[in-house]
Amino acid sequence: MTAIQAHFRAVAPPVVLMGAVLVLWQVACWAYPHPEPGPVSVAATLLHLMGKAYFWHNAAATGRSFLLASGISIAVGGALGLLIGSSRLLSWYLAPLLMIFQTVPKITLYPIVLELFGLGMAPKVAFGVMHGVIPVYFITSRLVAGVRKVLLRSARVMRLGAAERFYFVIVPAILPDMIATLRVSVALCLLGVLIGEMFASHSGLGFMAVNAINLGDTPVTLAVGFFLAFMAVGINTLLLYCEHKLRH
Amino acid sequence: MKTGLTAIPYALRLLLIVVLVGLWQVFCSIGLLGTGIVPAPVTIWHDMCAVMGQSASRAALWLSLRDILIAALIAGAGGIAVGMIVHPIRLLRAALEPYLASYYAVPTFIFYPALITVTGSGRLPIILISIMLGIVAMITTTLTALDGVSRSIVRTARVFGLTPLQNVMYVRIPAAAPMLLSGLRLCVSYAFIGVIASEFIMSDAGVGYQIAYAYDNFDTDTMYGYIGCVVVLAAATTLGFDMIAAEPVKREGA
Amino acid sequence: MTENGQTDVPCVELRQVEQRFTTRKGGNVHALGPLDLTLRRGEFLSIVGPSGCGKSTLLDILSGLARPAAGQALLNGQPIRGVPDGVGIVFQEDASFGWLTVENNIAFGLKRRGLARDDIAARVEHALDFMGLRRFRTSYPSQLSGGMRQRVCIARTLVMRPSLILLDEPFGALDQQTRLLMGDELLRLWRETNATILLITHSLDEAVMLSDRIGVMSARPGRLIKLVETGWPRERDSTVVSSPHYGDLLSEIWAPLRAESNHHMAANNA
After folding, report:
1. B29: in domain
2. Predicted-complex ipTM score
3. Which residues between 27 and 66 in chain B have a beta carbon less than 8 angstroms from any beta carbon of chain C?
4. If you ran DSSP here, which 8-state letter would residue C221 be given?
5. Are C65 and A157 in contact (CB < 8 Å)?
6. Residue C99 distance to chain A (closest CA, Å)
7. Which InterPro entries match (chain A) (predicted)?
8. Residue C22 near chain B (CB below 8 Å)
9. Averages of pLDDT over each 10 residues, chain B, 254 residues
10. Domains parsed from chain A with CATH numbers
């Protein structure tokens, strides 16, 4: 099998599935006249939107907040995970607290976030971090605790200090799995940012969507939703590629 | 003596939470945390009691809780079923995998209003959106769990001549049980988020609606009362789940 | 130096060493000892014993990963505190670093030690040849067989030029043929490096084939119940298995071990 054939085999099934769903949807729209827009009109709306400057202005606002929220979540959650995951004592005392925070539907805390951060970019980023940071912590700490003991013992016998152990053994050992699961946490950051935009902001794709919802403009809502879905799949594919590069 | 030894860490863990809440109270009392930002725990406790004292609020809480449970159960069972069906069909799985992987980056709520125009308003779209939110986590977990069932177990089952259904019921599900349980926990927390967030966005009943309503009317006491109830409820559910889920893991470790 | 390459200078001395553990449920386990053992410099000593007899605990004490609860453990006359210099250890499980190529795995310890680049390169080249890994230098461990991965771990330990090499069932996960061949290689590297080797194994054949002396341990708490001199010449390889003396040695260590294992099983069933 050539590389192109292999590539085709990987790409063809999802594309065919998506095509089938879209065709079914369009056919359903023609067959049963309905207020819901079909894929053709959603695509037309999206193309129309993509020609407008304000759309890209909002997309850029979402992108900025998303990058910032992901960066903070990974840095803080990763550090917490490394620290707490490598100590049984700390995990015992701190893990339940973080777990409780994780279970709370963050949206209920939005009045508090508004009080603390006001309107604008800060509450969006805060929402993104609130959604992403604990999953990153969980993943990291689970991976750290799961590093095979024999590797840690080897590191000790080589007389590596704690910092060296982290940098040369624990971090490279968990990195591929880390990226695999970061895909999920980064997605949660985007979700958080969008929720923030829907409730606590006057810019961004989330704000556009909530505006369209309030105006009952379903084609725009769906167009924004699908644009976000494409972006999400794109980010996901990029991270998947990084993961494959890191795995041997 | 032995039980006494093992009980101490649990007690200390509880103590830590008590101390933290105590510190929060003290900070609020001496004005380090402005009461305008976060009220003191005692205040929230009073708000919660006031909320729970009204039968209308209890009904709102119950309504949300009921729908959370329904959504979580359907998402869990449905996710396991879909996972079981998709797992052996390689082509179908290859077609679904990229969408499953990036599913959670898409804010499902955006499709909630569109759903209302199809189903009409009421509890149905709320439950549906919560199922949509949770079921993919369960499908993914089921697929991963089935991948993790060792080949020797699968082959043993084949040697015993089990039918495909028996194989699923007596071998694959029990072998994958610990992971499936964690998937179910995800379903519960997604159902929590799904129900309360949908009530928040567009609804006329339930806790999410009550919080939004209280916020819009500057009724912060009621708002914090409801938020407190949701936090306690969410924490209790997850911790309860953890206790159940921890059992088989412990047995494995012993 | 005697004719088989050993000296009478002690490398490791254990005096009345004991180890105890507290289990998670608060119980107390007497894992090891009291145990007395002296390893002569340059000797190849194997330890065999029933499962759970504290063999690995002994290794942890020697490598400084654990402190004995009682007694003294000396390396070259100095008490062992922390991981001592000049001790290398190879574990049963695969300890190769999956994220590094074979040559980077081998160079890992040397780089952390901050050696000069030329020196590192020279040592790695030598180890690649010595362990027959040259073809795989740029491969990653996941592309290698279990035996090859274990060679990587041995090479990684060897380049540090340890004077004491501890082997914790290094061939336990390998098939019989590979074990025999690895045994030959182990004998060769022992001769060429003049290191002292302590091998922990559950394979009696391996112990008899490789060692100058074999220590038989009792069931928990592990004590040394028999010490057998094999009397093999320093120049030896896996062909010793066909000598009549081999069978004698095997039965000599099997007799006490069999009694001990039976005793252990009976105690567990009681």
Report:
1. no
2. 0.74
3. none
4. S
5. yes
6. 6
7. MetI-like (IPR000515), MetI-like_sf (IPR035906)
8. no
9. 57 82 83 69 87 88 92 94 88 84 73 76 89 91 84 74 77 82 84 86 86 86 88 80 58 34
10. 8-16+37-247 (1.10.3720.10)
